[in-house]
Protein backbone atom coordinates (compact mmCIF):
# COMPACT_ATOMS: atom_id res chain seq x y z
CA UNK A 1 0.00 0.00 0.00
CA UNK A 2 2.79 2.43 0.92
CA UNK A 3 4.62 1.61 -2.31
CA UNK A 4 1.53 2.50 -4.37
CA UNK A 5 1.19 5.84 -2.61
CA UNK A 6 4.88 6.62 -3.19
CA UNK A 7 4.62 5.70 -6.87
CA UNK A 8 1.51 7.85 -7.35
CA UNK A 9 3.14 10.78 -5.54
CA UNK A 10 6.30 10.46 -7.65
CA UNK A 11 4.28 10.40 -10.89
CA UNK A 12 2.26 13.42 -9.74
CA UNK A 13 5.34 15.52 -8.99
CA UNK A 14 7.08 14.40 -12.19
CA UNK A 15 4.04 15.48 -14.21
CA UNK A 16 3.92 18.87 -12.50
CA UNK A 17 7.66 19.42 -13.05
CA UNK A 18 7.39 18.40 -16.72
CA UNK A 19 4.40 20.69 -17.30
CA UNK A 20 6.23 23.66 -15.78
CA UNK A 21 9.16 23.18 -18.14
CA UNK A 22 6.88 23.29 -21.19
CA UNK A 23 6.68 27.06 -21.22
CA UNK A 24 8.33 29.89 -23.09
CA UNK A 25 8.84 31.80 -19.84
CA UNK A 26 12.51 32.08 -18.95
CA UNK A 27 15.80 33.32 -20.39
CA UNK A 28 16.73 32.62 -24.01
CA UNK A 29 19.92 33.13 -25.99
CA UNK A 30 19.08 34.66 -29.35
CA UNK A 31 20.92 33.30 -32.36
CA UNK A 32 21.34 35.36 -35.53
CA UNK A 33 19.71 33.36 -38.34
CA UNK A 34 22.20 34.71 -40.90
CA UNK A 35 25.51 34.28 -39.03
CA UNK A 36 24.57 31.54 -36.54
CA UNK A 37 26.22 33.53 -33.73
CA UNK A 38 24.70 34.32 -30.34
CA UNK A 39 23.53 37.94 -30.10
CA UNK A 40 21.72 38.54 -26.83
CA UNK A 41 19.80 37.15 -23.88
CA UNK A 42 16.05 37.79 -23.82
CA UNK A 43 13.96 37.22 -20.72
CA UNK A 44 10.41 36.14 -21.58
CA UNK A 45 7.78 36.73 -18.92
CA UNK A 46 4.03 36.84 -18.44
CA UNK A 47 2.10 39.95 -17.45
CA UNK A 48 -1.70 40.16 -17.29
CA UNK A 49 -2.05 36.87 -19.16
CA UNK A 50 0.14 37.95 -22.09
CA UNK A 51 3.74 37.14 -23.00
CA UNK A 52 6.47 39.77 -23.23
CA UNK A 53 10.22 39.62 -23.71
CA UNK A 54 12.99 42.09 -22.99
CA UNK A 55 16.67 42.12 -23.81
CA UNK A 56 18.65 41.69 -20.59
CA UNK A 57 22.15 41.26 -22.05
CA UNK A 58 24.08 41.66 -25.30
CA UNK A 59 26.81 39.12 -26.03
CA UNK A 60 29.10 41.43 -28.05
CA UNK A 61 30.80 43.72 -25.49
CA UNK A 62 31.17 46.50 -28.09
CA UNK A 63 27.39 46.65 -28.58
CA UNK A 64 26.32 46.63 -24.91
CA UNK A 65 25.71 50.39 -24.90
CA UNK A 66 23.79 50.38 -28.20
CA UNK A 67 20.72 52.56 -28.59
CA UNK A 68 17.66 51.78 -30.67
CA UNK A 69 18.30 54.65 -33.07
CA UNK A 70 16.06 53.27 -35.84
CA UNK A 71 13.12 52.67 -33.50
CA UNK A 72 10.12 54.98 -33.42
CA UNK A 73 7.88 56.24 -30.64
CA UNK A 74 8.84 55.59 -27.02
CA UNK A 75 11.65 53.20 -28.01
CA UNK A 76 13.54 55.78 -30.09
CA UNK A 77 17.11 56.21 -28.79
CA UNK A 78 16.47 53.98 -25.76
CA UNK A 79 19.20 51.54 -24.68
CA UNK A 80 18.78 48.16 -26.36
CA UNK A 81 19.46 46.43 -23.04
CA UNK A 82 16.14 46.64 -21.20
CA UNK A 83 14.13 47.10 -24.40
CA UNK A 84 10.87 45.11 -24.55
CA UNK A 85 10.98 43.44 -27.96
CA UNK A 86 8.21 40.82 -27.62
CA UNK A 87 4.84 42.38 -26.94
CA UNK A 88 1.43 41.00 -26.06
CA UNK A 89 1.50 37.40 -27.29
CA UNK A 90 -1.31 35.05 -26.24
CA UNK A 91 -1.16 31.29 -25.83
CA UNK A 92 -3.02 29.49 -28.62
CA UNK A 93 -2.64 25.73 -28.23
CA UNK A 94 1.09 25.01 -28.45
CA UNK A 95 1.88 28.42 -29.98
CA UNK A 96 2.01 31.96 -28.70
CA UNK A 97 0.76 34.50 -31.23
CA UNK A 98 -1.32 37.65 -31.81
CA UNK A 99 1.53 39.90 -30.71
CA UNK A 100 4.48 41.82 -32.10
CA UNK A 101 8.26 41.59 -32.11
CA UNK A 102 10.63 44.53 -32.50
CA UNK A 103 13.89 44.23 -34.42
CA UNK A 104 16.13 46.70 -32.56
CA UNK A 105 18.61 46.81 -35.45
CA UNK A 106 16.12 47.98 -38.08
CA UNK A 107 13.57 49.49 -35.68
CA UNK A 108 10.80 47.59 -37.47
CA UNK A 109 7.86 45.98 -35.70
CA UNK A 110 6.60 42.63 -37.01
CA UNK A 111 3.78 40.25 -36.22
CA UNK A 112 5.17 37.35 -34.25
CA UNK A 113 4.58 33.83 -33.04
CA UNK A 114 6.59 31.59 -30.75
CA UNK A 115 6.61 27.79 -30.63
CA UNK A 116 8.64 25.52 -28.38
CA UNK A 117 10.75 22.85 -30.07
CA UNK A 118 11.31 20.50 -27.14
CA UNK A 119 12.17 22.09 -23.81
CA UNK A 120 15.26 24.05 -24.73
CA UNK A 121 14.64 25.49 -28.20
CA UNK A 122 12.23 28.24 -29.15
CA UNK A 123 11.23 29.02 -32.73
CA UNK A 124 10.59 32.74 -33.08
CA UNK A 125 8.95 33.87 -36.30
CA UNK A 126 8.56 37.51 -37.29
CA UNK A 127 6.51 38.32 -40.36
CA UNK A 128 4.56 40.92 -42.30
CA UNK A 129 0.96 40.13 -43.28
CA UNK A 130 0.89 36.33 -43.27
CA UNK A 131 3.44 34.04 -41.60
CA UNK A 132 4.61 32.84 -45.03
CA UNK A 133 6.37 36.20 -45.52
CA UNK A 134 8.86 36.28 -42.68
CA UNK A 135 11.80 34.58 -41.09
CA UNK A 136 12.37 32.27 -38.16
CA UNK A 137 15.14 32.26 -35.57
CA UNK A 138 15.77 29.43 -33.13
CA UNK A 139 16.68 30.58 -29.63
CA UNK A 140 18.23 28.36 -26.95
CA UNK A 141 17.11 28.26 -23.33
CA UNK A 142 19.68 29.60 -20.88
CA UNK A 143 20.12 27.14 -18.00
Can you characterise this structure?
The protein is mainly beta and 143 residues long. The protein has one domain: Lipocalin, CATH 2.40.128. The protein is built from one helix and eight strands. Strands 1-2-3-4-5-6-7-8 form an eight-stranded antiparallel β-barrel. It is globular, with a radius of gyration of 18 Å. The protein starts with a helix and ends with a strand. About 11% of the residues have low confidence.
Strand-helix topology:
Blueprint: H1 2-21, E1 26-31, E2 38-47, E3 50-58, E4 84-92, E5 95-103, E6 108-116, E7 121-127, E8 134-141
Antiparallel strand pairs: 1-2, 1-8, 2-3, 3-4, 4-5, 5-6, 6-7, 7-8
Protein name: DUF2147 domain-containing protein
Organism: Flavobacterium xylosi
Domain DUF2147: 26-141
CATH architect. name: Beta Barrel
Compute the number of strand runs. 8
Give the number of helices.
1
Radius of gyration, in angstroms, nearest whole number = 18 Å
Low-confidence stretches: 5-20
What portion of residues belong to β-strands?
A: over 45%
Amino acid sequence: MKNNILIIAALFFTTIFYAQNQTVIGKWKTIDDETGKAKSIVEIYERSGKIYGKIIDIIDAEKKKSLCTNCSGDEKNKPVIGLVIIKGLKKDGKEYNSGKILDPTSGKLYKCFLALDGNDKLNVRGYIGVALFGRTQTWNRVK
